Amino acid sequence: MSEKSLNKVMLIGRLGKDPEVKYITSGQAVANFSVATSESWQDKDGQNKDRTEWHRIVIFGKLAEIAGQYLNKGSRVYLEGRLQTREWEKDGQKRSTTEIVVRDMVMLSPKGESAGGGGGPAAEPELVEDPGAHEDVPF
After folding, report:
1. Rounded CA gap, 61 and 133, in Å?
2. Could you say which DSSP state residue 101 is in?
3. Which residues pair with 41 in a beta bridge?
4. pLDDT at 2
5. Which residues, 6+ apart, have CB-to-CB distance to 41 below 8 Å?
6. Is 66 helix (H, G, I), strand (E, B) or coil?
7. 125 vs 80: CA distance, rounded Å
8. Which domains are delineated in the chain?
9. CA dist list (Å): 123 to 38, 99, 126
10. Does residue 57 sit in helix, strand or coil?
11. What pLDDT score does 112 carry?
């Protein structure tokens, strides 16, 4: 009997840079960017503390093209996907990175808002799902 497992990540954060969209040899789009998530708390002395965590994001296909067209530095976004670790060798040194491969995305910033802030009322979020995202399901 096989064990069930789950690899799922959900983030709400802001882009640290504009998405970089490239096309692989098959013609499929790939978008890469970073997203910051932050948390705040009070320490035992009552001092306010903040911590920001940076996440590497990878999106494939039509969803990557949409991210490249509509997201920019400072955009607030909800991302859902899975963790993936890649390894490679460069100059004789083994390297690795852990990234989030996104399947679903909701743009949360009002149209035209980025890091500077738009100040207006929030726009209705638009759910965008990669139509090919579930093709790798083995059943």
Report:
1. 9
2. E
3. 49
4. 78
5. 48, 49
6. helix
7. 14
8. 9-40+49-129 (2.40.50.140)
9. 22, 28, 9
10. strand
11. 64
